[in-house]
Design goal:
The protein is of the alpha/beta class and 413 residues long. Helix content is 47%, strand content 14%.
Length: 413
């Protein structure tokens, strides 16, 4: 018997649904709780569940953010849900079933494919609502990969983190229906606010990066990986031909030392040693954004959401971003930033020149528009409210279903 057949067998005999306690219990499942957008969203939603009077449980293999999660009042339970080993995934079904029944879970919410296979069958066996969040386009180059990805479409509700992702689901998987809901990722506007950054933080970061006062700064934040467009920005700066600016490429290489060296070599070959600096990961991104005159998101592949563009706008900084993916939703070209054709170094150079040439009044107007745009459409609060409402909708549906079943049973007697 295959692992998938064993998973199906586990789900074939549903457990009896217990009486509801009246206090919503939400279980989120993801591979780990190390740093990242998925992890940040998980912690934010757990905090919102607790704040709304519910119980939040998160299952993962652990990570750096466990302590932060627990400070919200949520509970973390370690489980090898990061594993793609079929035997471990099969064993995780039983582990999750026991956990769901012990804590009387109402909602099972998964955020990644490997744990989704176990969580789906556990939710099915225990007759609990199953929610997925589609966080990216995932690799879908052949039928096997698409079949593996389809577990993320089996939710009673499927959350797409942007309209771009919702369209991707419809185009690639031919899935339509009201179960697909767009809930954008949310930016913490208490953290990412121009008023939250003290002068001391700015001075400390400027000294660390040896930034010359008064010199315009172009910044590209993001992990050092080819599709984030660091090479494209370097080529654009070479075309721009200005030596009176500084460019900071900010991000960890995450072990890609060869790629980092290739960037440094390209900087040298393009005569930009005095212009471009490859910095490491920054723990104080709000202060980093405040140092910048222009923030660049030059991704060569479409961003599923793109936190850099949203965070920078929340800080009132002009954004130059590739015109594809969710950037078309988060950036209002000509109002809060500039969109350029993806992969076009010449167009990026022209967009940089335009952004750097903004006069004070235009910069202030753009900053106000950008901050308002993010506040109204992409805040953490909005994301949490919409997610909690989705949970409540599913719980109400289950209550109605249980009541209907009880009525039919009584009528039969």
């Amino acid at each position: 018997m295959t692992a998938q057949a064993k998973l199906a067998e586990l789900a074939s005999t549903p457990a009896k649904a217990p009486a509801r306690s009246g206090r919503p219990v939400v279980l989120q499942v993801l591979p780990s709780l190390d740093t990242g957008g998925v992890e940040r969203g998980t912690v934010d939603i757990a905090a919102a569940v607790v704040k709304s009077g519910g119980t939040a449980i998160v299952v993962s293999s652990g990570g750096l953010m466990v302590r932060e999660l627990e400070r919200t009042g949520a509970r973390h339970i370690a489980m090898p849900v990061h594993s793609k080993n079929p035997l471990v995934m099969w064993q995780n079904v039983s582990r999750l079933v026991r956990l769901i029944e012990k804590h009387d879970v109402d909602i099972v919410h998964v955020r990644s494919r490997a744990p989704a296979w176990s969580a789906y069958y556990a939710a099915k066996r225990t007759q609990r609502a199953f929610v997925t969040t589609f966080h990216g386009t995932y690799s879908h180059t052949n039928i096997f990969k698409r079949a593996y990805n389809r577990i993320m479409l089996r939710g009673d509700r499927v959350i797409a983190i942007s309209h771009f992702i919702a369209d991707h689901i419809r185009d690639v998987y031919r899935v339509e229906g009201p179960q697909i809901r767009v809930i954008h990722r949310g930016i913490d506007l208490d953290l990412f606010s121009p008023h939250s950054v003290t002068p001391e933080r700015l001075i400390g970061l400027a000294e660390r990066w040896r930034v010359t006062e008064g010199m315009p700064i172009v910044m590209l934040p993001g992990r050092l990986t080819a599709w984030k467009g660091q090479r494209l920005l370097i080529e654009a700066l070479a075309r721009l031909g200005r030596n009176d600016i500084r460019c900071l490429i900010v991000g960890s290489d995450q072990g890609r030392e060869g790629y980092r060296r290739s960037l440094e070599s390209l900087i040298d070959r393009r005569g930009l040693l005095g212009v471009v600096q490859v910095a490491d990961h920054c723990r104080d991104m709000p202060a980093a954004y405040m140092l910048a005159d222009v923030v660049v998101s030059a991704s060569t592949d479409p961003e599923a959401f793109g936190r850099v563009a949203a965070e920078a706008q929340a800080m009132g900084r002009p954004v130059v971003a590739s015109n594809h993916g969710a950037a078309r939703e988060t950036v209002l070209s000509g109002q809060t930033g500039i969109l350029f054709p993806p992969g076009d170094a010449e167009a990026l150079a022209m967009a940089l020149a335009e952004a750097l040439a903004l006069k004070s009044a235009a910069r202030e107007a753009l900053a106000a528009a950008a901050i308002a745009h993010i506040r109204d459409n992409f805040s953490k609060e909005k994301m949490c409210v919409e997610t909690i409402a989705l949970y409540a909708e599913l719980i109400a549906e289950r209550a109605q279903r249980d009541e209907s079943q009880a009525g039919r049973a009584e009528a039969a007697v």
